[in-house]
Amino acid sequence: MGNKLNTAHKICAKAANERNYDLPYEQWVMELNPNVHDVLILCDLMAQVWNGGFEQWYSNGYGGAVLQCLEALLRLNSNAAKVVHDLVQQADNFYTTTNRNNEWEYETMLWRFDDLDTAFYTGVDNLLADDVERLAVRTVKHVN
Question: What does 52-83 look like in DSSP terms, one character per residue?
Answer without folding.
Answer: HHHHHHHHTTGGGGHHHHHHHHHHH--HHHHH
